[in-house]
Amino acid sequence: MEEKEKSDFIRDIINDDLKTNKYQGRVHTRFPPEPNGYLHIGHAKSICLNSGIARDYNGKFNLRFDDTNPSKEEQEYVDSIVEDVRWLGGDFEDRLYFASDYFGTMYELAVQLITKGKAFVCDLNAEEMRLTRGTLTEPGKESPYRNRSVAENLDLFSRMKNGEFPNGAKTLRAKIDMASPNINLRDPVMYRIVHEHHHRQKDAWCIYPTYDWAHGIEDSLERITHSICTLEFENHRPLYDWYLEELGVYRPQQIEFARLNLSYTVLSKRKLLRLVNEGHVSGWDDPRMPTIAGFRRRGYTAASIKNFCDIIGVAKRDSTIDVTLLEYSIREDLNKHSQRAMAVLNPLRVVITNYPEGATEECTAVNNPEDENAGTRQVPFARELFIDQDDFREVPPPKYFRLSPGMEVRLKYAYIIKCESVVKDAQGNVTEVRCTYDPESKSGMAGAGRKVKATIHWVSAAHAKDVEVRLYDRLFVKENPDEAEEGKDFLSNLNPDSLQVVKHCKVEAMLGNAAAGEGYQFERTGYFSVDPKDSRPGVPVFNRVVTLKDTWAKIEQRHR
Ligand code: ATP
Ligand code: MG
After folding, report:
1. Which of 128, 303, 368, 390 could form a disulfide bond with 124, CB atoms 3.0-4.6 angstroms apart?
2. Is 264 within a domain?
3. 125 in the same domain as 44
């Protein structure tokens, strides 16, 4: 199938730039994460957008760490981000950069601005600066240090760099316009004094550039053509342009798009960090986390995440995407590619009383009805089986067509059975269902075409393997988790039942040897994937990737 050519407002801008030859036909994008957490699905949108544009225009794509803030950055995050970007197919080739590698150049450029009379060292502290910044309706006040001489500024700035002053004692500020209607242009801070260890630069620096000062320089040095960022930077664009223009260096085009918001999900690293640090999840890669690492561990495929990003597209206006759309994308992909298997999550023993004791026969099961080439496999049938407790009711409610006393069902790929009696324990719970089978009802036999109202899955008790299965549900019960009661925060909307561990599921023997990361559709139950962290050879733990259908929507409707 031929892929439809994508079209959106960003590609329109690029097409125009190509027509006017603005960048000599070049297209060069980047993804600039700050290594202060793991990447989430919002970042995936940015990665797919930036690397997708580079791919479609035969351009280039850089991965650049925006590591300009020493306090929260760590190597662990750098490593995870590189892995995640690669996994999503973001092809940065050998262009992996660190903003901190440009600190020397940024310093020299700052000296240039001071020399031009366009930057000054200011002694106001953060609070004083806030008080003199003005408001949306009132202009700010000029700093009393604004008219220091170039020589004094150069001297003070070099002493700031040399560590002569404590944190917060001085800043370097651009000299623009305290009366600008755009607050970002009211003499913004370019450098702060921060005596802290940097994950790459170690203790080489004690002044650190602000995002606005650093980002345009990074883009310019890397000859980025289109610097794509989220909407909150729209008001920063005039400053981005001002710095590069004053420096007289190459200027990329900043373009803003709406960030991804997902229902029932938080997508802020600060909040995700709290979930991890306060133990609400097992880590950044907990399969319930909306992180790329969490999704990968849970069994989401890169293809389905990319497809989701394509479906939602890019827009200029903020909106919230329904998380069921993401789940739909996962299901679509897994349905096409997953090997089918039979697995019984809540086993109930069935004994076929007219089937010979000790006998076994093979039944032919289809590996993937969506894929002719996937073939078939043999599953063993015997006198004792397990079916799911859900598929039996001693007293069936109206319209219940599965197994109940006197009723018949078909066992998938095998025979029709009829429930003759039940065995109960002292508490009256059904512990065993006794059935007879119709020996002529299997595929290829005279009664194969006989119709019954339900088909259920099963496994042979003697052949089945015992495995642990983890069922995940949404991490939050509220569509907008930030909507909390007075005095409470998003954590009050956590779903207490987001993880259900089922210890003794009975599964087809082949699943006992399933390897980490392998995915299956458990027939009638959902998509499952072998947890790469907690599984051992021969002892797989299965994560439920996603249910077969959107059961959540149904449950919600019932509650209304
Ligand atoms: P968060 O708000 O989650 O803490 P951030 O914006 O601080 O994220 P960065 O590491 O600075 O995280 O982001 C790297 C890139 O990813 C930026 O270009 C940013 O615009 C983009 N990005 C971050 N969150 C989203 C999102 N929800 N949707 C789309 N793009 C995003
Ligand atoms: Mg950021």
Report:
1. 128
2. no
3. yes
Helix ranges (H only) for 192-255 are 211-221, 237-247
pLDDT digits (tens, 9 = 90+) for 302-354: 999 999 999 999 999 999 999 999 999 999 999 999 999 999 999 999 999 99
Q: Token pair of 526, please?
A: 């959902």
Name the domain count of the chain: 3
**3-state class percentages of the chain: helix first, strand second, coil last, to nearest 5:** 30, 25, 45
Angle formed at CA 208 by CA 242 and CA 140, multiple of 5 degrees: 50
Q: Whose CA is nearest to atom 18 of ligand 1?
A: 229
- The reported pLDDT for the residue numbered 328 is 96
The alpha-carbon radius of gyration of the chain (Å, integer) is: 31
Q: Exposure string (b/e) for 418-457, b if CB count within 10 Å is 16 or more?
A: bbeebeeeeeeeeeebebbbbeebbeeeeeeeeebeebbb
**What CATH number did the domain enclosing 280 receive?**
2.40.240.10
Residue 560 pLDDT = 43
Distance CA 235, CA 227 (A): 15
Number of other residues whose CB lies within 10 A of the CB of residue 58: 9
Half-sphere exposure of 229 (CA within 13 A, CB side): 22
Supply the residue whose CA is at minimum distance from atom 22 of ligand 1. 43
Domain region containing 413: 343-457
Residue 481 tokens, joined: 């988790």
Phi, psi of 176 (to 5 degrees): -115, -85
Cα separation of 492 and 481, whole Å? 8
Considering the domain architecture, whether residues 320 and 362 belong to the same structural domain is answered as no
| Residues annotated as part of the active site | 34, 259, 269
Domain at 143, CATH number? 3.40.50.620
Instruction: Please give the C-alpha separations between residue 338 and each of 165, 231, 294, 377, 545, in angstroms, as whole numbers.
Output: 62, 38, 20, 14, 12
The response to whether residue 99 sits with its C-beta less than 6 Å from ligand 1 reads no
Q: Are 527 and 548 in contact (CB under 8 A)?
A: yes
Q: Is 31 helix (H, G, I), strand (E, B) or coil?
A: strand
Q: Say which amino acid occupies 500.
A: Q
Which atom of ligand 1 sits closest to the CA of residue 40? Answer: 3
Nearest to 472 by CA among 288, 293, 329: 288
Residue 549 has a pLDDT of: 87
Q: Which helix (H) or strand (E) segment is 294 a member of?
A: helix 292-298
Q: Specify the pLDDT at position 550.
A: 73
Question: Which residues does 463 contact at the CB level (< 8 Å), separation at least 6?
Answer: 360, 380, 382, 508, 509
244 and 280 together in one domain: no
Residues 434 and 486 in one domain: no
Q: Strand 465-472 and strand 459-460: pairing? A: unpaired
Question: Does the beta carbon of 234 lie inside 6 Å of ligand 1?
Answer: no
Span from the CA of 203 to the centroid of ligand 1 (angstroms) = 27
